[in-house]
Amino acid sequence: MSLFTRPDFDAFTEGFAGTTLIDQWDSRIAKVGDKVFALLTDAERRICFKVSEESFEILTSLQGVSQAPYFAKRKWVTVNPDTELSEADVREYLTRSYRTVSASLTRKLRAELGIVE
Hints:
6-stranded antiparallel sheet
């Protein structure tokens, strides 16, 4: 299993309440509500997701991780398949991204989407 393949990316991200997947920007986009929390690029098979400011500084110093184009000022990173991060680490950061983005939704929308606080 590799999150860098569409079937595995889809299976993992669909496990989060209220997640929808769409194809946009030559990528597979995972959204909660109407907000993006992760994407898998089609061509390069890279994963992008939102991180905390502290994680942004740490992760972008690692091999295979860089600032996400167009998203870096919002603390998004791009992870390549050859990253030194383990699969478990990538899963954890995707989970954190989902939690961060879903927490920014209204309480009413979180309830409608079945997101438990």
